[in-house]
Amino acid sequence: MKPWNVFGLHEASWGERALFFVTMLSMLALALYGFIRPESLTTTLNGAFTWVLTYFGWWFILLGFILLIIVMLMTFSRYGRLRIGGPDAEPEFSVFAWLSMVFTVGFSGSILIWGVGEPVSIVQNPPPKPYPVEGASVKSMALAFMFIHEVFPGLAMWYLPVAMAFGIIVYTHGVGEYKISSMLGGLIEEDTVPGLYWLVDLAAIVATIGGIATTLGFSAQTMASILGRTFGLEAQILTYAIFVVIGAVFLGDVWLGLRKGIRNAARATMVLIAISMAILVVVGPTLFMFELTLDATGVWLSNMFRLMLYTNPTADSNWAANWTGFWWAWWAAWSIFVGSFVARVSKGRTIREMFVVLVLIPTFLTWVQHGLIGGWVLAPGNFDAIAGAMSEGGIPAAIAQALLVTPLGNLLAIMFVLVITGYIITSLDSAVFMISAITLGDENPNAVNRAWWGGLLAFFGMMSLELEQFSAIQALSPTLALPLTVFLLVILFAAYKVARKHAREAGDIDVEGESLISTQTEEPSSED
């Protein structure tokens, strides 16, 4: 057997092999350093986090606003009728399977983790006075910021631009190679600047690893805290064991592929989410949850632009950059991976259909979940104990404490562990699928290469358990996302040029028979 076969690189070019080994070895070295010197890595990551958000937090906030405008213009102009893969392309997945993959990959465990962490943190440490919204209670304002960051406009700013650009350029236009750098084809030819395409793919893979590692880290520490504080178990050892089980399921999914592996894991996770939220409505402070959600919704919708552009430059603190700047940086780090994955599973759908499934429907789903979770942890009878636990042990401890003060908390804890596990499996499946695809330039990468990337990401997740400070994990996303922010604008411009060309060639696009969401799917393949 040739050595390249061991890594799934037997058909790869020398540039693709170099991309694999450079990324793999550098990320592996970082993870090993985290195991050996967790205190040093924590200090370094926190320092990078502070520097990026202090000096570039404003840039992330401004860029998010610019991307939102571009997305809305592209979606509701004539270009919104462009079909990913060309006018004759047909959908590959049913609407529910499509939505499940988009939703579980795009949000992962952040709904639970930050749904508890952000509102409680903001109530404990609100923005400097004068508050951005006069007359609103601190709790309603805290939940309104949560809606801004993970409901809307956050949903429309980051994933959809990459999904549109990747879908239009790679699938509709057909540039050839399935790589992030291929989106530059409409502007800069590969030979014009030697090595540019390779560097773009390297940066995209590193940012994707940083984004998924952040979520794996959050999820791993939250799972450990729930198991340890709620059930009194040896949390860290048990969490390592769960990661071994997750790894085994992941390897099975790798061999099952996109249609059976990722699709089925995503659908199961959606069902678990629905059951968990139903239980929370029954056992939680139901009346307070509903009333706070409605009040915060009014604050959110009435002050959307004020909240999303809030910076308070005259204040001494860096509050806005540490919240909105961090969120937009995290979205940016995830945007390459999620956007390209959404484009992959959206072939046969129009840009407007992608907007519905990636923005409109998730806006409703995340609004419901964050409203319920926020009302649960901010309720007068729960807040003090949860806030105290957060002050001592961070967000994972706060989640565990919330379960302890809730009737049937053990049942809810089991559901949350299952949901987090489902998110980890789905995100890991999807991330390695896209990282491998970008590395090899193949939209259906081989299982061996995907298994190597999966092992690296799982190793990152376990490494995060060694980091004492929860804040160190969140530093990966903004640090690695900063170089990609300008790239997002470049690829959108390239997508606009390609979209305009196709619109003209199609005679302003024939849309006869188009529906809001096409339910037609291809005939089942032999993989089903």
From TrEMBL:
<feature type="transmembrane region" description="Helical">
    <location>
        <begin position="18"/>
        <end position="36"/>
    </location>
</feature>
<keyword id="KW-0472">Membrane</keyword>
<protein>
    <submittedName>
        <fullName>BCCT family transporter</fullName>
    </submittedName>
</protein>
<feature type="transmembrane region" description="Helical">
    <location>
        <begin position="355"/>
        <end position="379"/>
    </location>
</feature>
<feature type="transmembrane region" description="Helical">
    <location>
        <begin position="196"/>
        <end position="217"/>
    </location>
</feature>
<feature type="transmembrane region" description="Helical">
    <location>
        <begin position="237"/>
        <end position="258"/>
    </location>
</feature>
<keyword id="KW-1003">Cell membrane</keyword>
<feature type="transmembrane region" description="Helical">
    <location>
        <begin position="156"/>
        <end position="175"/>
    </location>
</feature>
<feature type="transmembrane region" description="Helical">
    <location>
        <begin position="56"/>
        <end position="76"/>
    </location>
</feature>
<keyword id="KW-0813">Transport</keyword>
<feature type="transmembrane region" description="Helical">
    <location>
        <begin position="471"/>
        <end position="496"/>
    </location>
</feature>
<feature type="transmembrane region" description="Helical">
    <location>
        <begin position="325"/>
        <end position="343"/>
    </location>
</feature>
<feature type="transmembrane region" description="Helical">
    <location>
        <begin position="399"/>
        <end position="426"/>
    </location>
</feature>
<keyword id="KW-0812">Transmembrane</keyword>
<feature type="transmembrane region" description="Helical">
    <location>
        <begin position="270"/>
        <end position="290"/>
    </location>
</feature>
<dbReference type="Pfam" id="PF02028">
    <property type="entry name" value="BCCT"/>
</dbReference>
<dbReference type="InterPro" id="IPR000060">
    <property type="entry name" value="BCCT_transptr"/>
</dbReference>
<feature type="transmembrane region" description="Helical">
    <location>
        <begin position="96"/>
        <end position="117"/>
    </location>
</feature>
<dbReference type="GO" id="GO:0005886">
    <property type="term" value="C:plasma membrane"/>
</dbReference>
<keyword id="KW-1133">Transmembrane helix</keyword>
